[in-house]
Amino acid sequence: MPITPDTKNWTWVLYRPCPECGFDAAAAAFDDVPDLLRDSADQWQGILADPAAVQRPDDATWSPLEYGAHVRDLCRVYRTRLGLMLENDGVGFADWDQDATAVAERYAEQDPAVVVAELGAEAESTAAAFAAVGPGQLARRGLRSDGSAFTVDSLARYFIHDALHHLWDVRPRS
Length: 174
Prior knowledge:
The protein contains five helices and three strands. By secondary structure, it is mainly α. 32% of the residues are buried.
């Protein structure tokens, strides 16, 4: 059964804590993003090593494998967006339909060992890209096609919430 696409505009997480995962992007420092990303990538090692990682908890929720593949691709997309913002202040971003990508790339059929290795590499590359940003570049701007405006600083905090939120999504449920 296909997953119902998430159509919420999550930009509100930049101003108040997420009531689901608890992450407070407004309180997060830009300089913490690389280490938070690296730590989250380490957590995916154990999650995707579990044989149950390929199983969806229900018909409406991605499996840990699918979430891991999404986080891998999330790193790629946000690293690209960061690069565009650093090259051209005020740049517009192409749309990214994460749900269409999950279907087209067959996230549910990928090999968890490959996904976790790729996720680790993408997270490290993305962490290094954010770590290389200079203080004078934090205010550079980018625009999503829906009109949502970001600075390099807010993009980093928005991105890290997304990555960390997906660890919350795959947490063991009691």
